[in-house]
Amino acid sequence: MTSAGRFAPSPSGELHVGNLRTAILAWLFARSSGRNFLLRVEDLDRARSGAEAEQLRDLAAIGATWDGDVVRQTARGALYTAAISRLQAAGLTYECFCTRREIQEAPSAPHAPQGAYPGTCRNLDPAELEFKRSTRPAAVRLRAGVAEYRVHDVLHGAYAGVVDDFVLRRNDGVTAYNLAVVVDDAEQGIDQVVRGDDLLPSTPRQAYLASLLNIPAPEYAHVPLVVNSDGVRLAKRDGAVTLRDLALAGIPSDAVRDRLLASLGLPAGRLERALDAFDPTALPREPWVWTGMGSPGST
Ligand code: GLU
Description:
- This protein is α/β, with parallel strands linked by helices.
- The chain has two domains: 4-75 and 224-289, HUPs (Rossmann fold, 3-Layer(aba) Sandwich), CATH 3.40.50.620; 77-179, Glutamyl-tRNA Synthetase, domain 3.
- The chain is 32% helix and 16% strand.
- It has a three-stranded parallel β-sheet with strand order 1-2-3, with helices on one face. The protein has a three-stranded antiparallel β-sheet with strand order 4-5-8. Strands 6-7 form a two-stranded antiparallel ribbon.
- The longest helix has 16 residues, at 17-32.
- The chain binds glutamic acid (GLU).
- Glutamic acid is lined by residues 8-10, 42, 181, 195, 199.
C-alpha cells in the first residue's frame, strides 16, 4: 500500500479558513514527501446533512486534490468492531456504566491527572457488574496499562501526555473518535498525521492504542491553529470565514488560498507551486491571527 497523509474533517458545517489552512498543510506535507493524500469524512458524530458536499467543494476550490474515493467512518463499523473485539479478547477492555456527572463528581484516583477517568468501573465484582448491566447500557473503555505515553511530533518534538482508561465505544453504540482514528489510519495506509494542535493532547492516547493493536505510530505534525483577533480559536461567529462568505464579499477562493499560503511564508498560486518552497521545519509555530480580508484591490 502506498503511504499516505490525510485530512479528516468532521462534517459538522462548512470549513473555515482555519480548517482550510490545516488542509493545505496536510496536503503539502503529504505531497512533498511523495505520499498519497486521502480524505476521510469523520461522520460518526456531529454530521450535518449537506456539510460533506460543501467541504469537498471547498477543498477542491483551493486545489487540495486527493487520491481515491472519500472514505466515510459510518461505513466502517465492522473494522471498529473487529478492533474492539481484539482488545476485548486480550483482556484490555471493560464495561463502564458511569454517567458524565458521576465521573465529574467522583474523587479522582491518587496521582491521577485532571480529567482522567477515575476508574470507577475498572474492577467491578460480578454482582456489581450484573446489577449495573440492568440499569443502563455500558460504554466500553480501554484498560490502559500506562498513565502517560510519549510521542514524537515534527513540530513539537517529544511530547508526553496522559493516557487514561478512555472510551472506545460509547454507551449509545457509537465508536469513539480515538478508536476510529487509529483503526482508520492504519487500515488506509496512513503513516503521516497532520492536524490542528488542539488534538495534540489526544495523541498519546491514540499512539498507545496503536501500540496495543500492533500498529506502528504514524509521523505526527500538529500545526498551529488560526485564531481571531482576541487570540481565540477561529469560529463561524468571527464573521466572513468560509469560502462562501468570502465569495459573497467579492473575494475569490484563489485569493483566500493565496492569503493562507502567504501566512505560511509560501508563494501564491496553485498548491503545487508551493511544494518546492515548503519546509516543514521552517513553519510558523505560533497561531495565525485572522484579521479578515478586504475586497479585491484593498488587500
Ligand atoms: N475529525 C477531526 C476534526 O475535524 C480531526 C481528526 C484528526 O485529524 O485526527 O477535528
